[in-house]
C-alpha cells in the first residue's frame, strides 16, 4: 500500500499542557470557532480515549461532506495523539485511510511546538497531488490559528473546557439606561460604592495590591445578608476599551469546601437606544464531583441583580456625584 505523508509545524505561546487540553476539546471548540470548516463533531463511541470514534460533518469551505475517525493512541503525559480517518467522502476513491499524528512539545520559553503529521494511505498507484498536500497543511494552520485566537481570551477557554474540568457556569443579563462608558466607570468604582449602596452585602472592599489593573488583589468582607464572611479576588483582564473585566475569587469561605475558585466575567455592551446591557458570567471551578446546586446558581444571579439595582438606585439618587 502506497503512503504519502506531509507535516505542518506551528510554534505558539501556549504551554504544552494547556495546548493539549485545548485540542482535547476540539470537538466542542472547532464548530464554534470555524463553522465553515466543521459543522459538527460528534463522539459516536468512547470517552476520548483509545478506541473513541467520532463523526465529522464539514462546512461550506471544505470540498467534502463527512468523515469518521478512530483514536489509536492517546498519550496525555507526552501530549501525543494518533487517529485514523477510515470512512467518508474525504477519502475520495483512491485512499484507504488517512492517519494523523499530533505531537505537542514544550519549548524553552514556556510555549510549545505543534506538529501535525498526515499520512495518506493509498489503495493503488494514485496519490494525492502536491496541491492537496499544501492545502491540507494550510487548512490545519488556519484552523489552529483560529482556535488559538479564540482561546487567547482565557475566560472563553475556561468556559469551553467544561468537558475537561469540573466547572459549572451561570449568567445574568441586565438591560439598563446607563450608557456603556458611564456604567463601566461606575462599576470601576465598585469597591467604594458597594459598601455605601449595599452595606448588607458588602461591609468593606479593600485593595490589597495593585491599582485596579491586571493583577490587582482585593479583599471583600461581607455583610449580614450574605452567608459568607470574606473572600479575596484577583483581576485577570481589565479591558477599558471594550468594557470588559475578568477576575478570579481564589480565597475565602465563599469557596465552601468544594470549590477551587470562582471566575467572573463582566461585559458591558452598548444598545441602540443609548443604554447598555450588563452581563455577568460566573464560573464555579470544583475540586471534585460536588457542584453548586440549581438553587445556588439561582441565588447567585438574583444576588447580582439586587446589587446592580441597588447600585443603580444609589447613582441616580446621587446624580450630581456622577
Automatic annotation (TrEMBL):
Task: Extract the Pfam families matched here.
Answer: Bet_v_1 (PF00407)
Q: Which residues form the signal peptide?
A: none
| Example of a GO MF term | signaling receptor activity
Q: Mention any one GO cellular component term assigned to this protein in its UniProt record.
A: nucleus
A Gene Ontology annotation in the biological process aspect, one of them, is: abscisic acid-activated signaling pathway
Superkingdom, according to UniProt?
Eukaryota
Q: Which InterPro entries does this UniProt record tie to the protein?
A: Bet_v_I/MLP, Bet_v_I_allergen, Plant_def-hormone_signal, START-like_dom_sf
List the PANTHER family hit by this protein, alphabetically.
Answer: OS08G0374000 PROTEIN-RELATED, START-LIKE DOMAIN, BET V I TYPE ALLERGEN-RELATED
Q: Describe the family membership recorded for this protein in Swiss-Prot or TrEMBL.
A: Belongs to the BetVI family.
Q: What is this protein called?
A: Putative START-like domain, Bet v I type allergen
Amino acid at each position: 500500500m502506497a503512503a504519502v505523508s506531509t507535516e505542518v509545524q506551528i510554534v505558539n505561546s501556549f504551554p504544552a499542557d494547556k495546548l493539549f487540553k485545548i485540542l482535547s476539546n476540539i470537538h466542542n471548540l472547532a464548530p464554534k470557532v470555524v463553522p465553515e470548516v466543521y459543522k459538527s463533531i460528534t463522539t459516536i463511541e468512547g470517552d476520548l480515549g483509545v478506541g473513541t470514534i467520532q463523526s465529522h460533518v464539514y462546512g461550506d469551505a471544505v470540498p467534502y461532506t463527512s468523515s469518521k475517525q478512530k483514536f489509536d493512541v492517546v498519550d496525555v503525559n507526552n501530549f501525543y495523539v494518533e487517529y485514523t480517518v477510515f470512512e467518508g467522502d474525504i477519502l475520495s476513491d483512491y485512499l484507504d485511510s488517512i492517519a494523523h499524528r499530533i505531537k505537542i512539545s514544550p519549548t524553552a520559553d514556556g510555549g510549545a511546538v505543534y506538529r501535525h503529521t498526515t499520512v495518506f494511505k493509498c489503495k493503488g498507484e494514485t496519490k494525492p497531488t502536491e496541491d492537496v498536500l499544501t492545502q491540507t497543511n494550510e487548512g490545519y494552520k488556519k484552523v489552529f490559528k483560529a482556535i488559538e485566537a479564540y482561546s487567547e481570551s482565557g475566560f472563553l477557554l475556561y468556559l469551553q473546557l467544561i468537558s475537561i474540568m469540573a466547572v459549572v457556569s451561570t449568567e445574568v443579563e441586565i438591560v439598563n439606561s446607563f450608557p456603556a462608558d458611564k456604567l463601566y466607570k461606575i462599576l470601576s468604582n465598585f469597591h467604594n460604592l458597594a459598601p455605601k449602596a449595599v452595606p448588607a452585602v458588602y461591609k468593606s472592599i479593600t485593595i490589597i495590591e495593585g491599582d485596579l489593573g491586571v493583577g490587582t488583589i482585593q479583599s471583600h468582607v461581607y455583610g449580614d445578608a450574605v452567608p459568607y464572611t470574606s473572600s479575596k479576588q484577583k483581576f485577570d483582564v481589565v479591558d477599558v476599551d471594550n468594557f470588559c473585566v475578568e477576575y478570579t475569587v481564589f480565597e475565602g469561605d465563599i469557596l465552601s469546601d468544594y470549590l477551587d475558585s470562582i471566575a467572573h466575567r463582566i461585559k458591558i455592551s452598548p444598545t441602540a437606544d443609548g443604554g447598555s446591557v450588563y452581563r455577568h458570567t460566573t464560573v464555579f471551578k470544583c475540586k471534585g464531583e460536588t457542584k453548586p446546586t440549581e438553587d445556588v446558581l439561582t441565588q447567585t444571579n438574583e444576588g447580582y441583580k439586587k446589587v446592580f439595582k441597588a447600585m443603580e438606585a444609589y447613582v441616580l439618587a446621587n446624580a450630581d456625584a456622577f
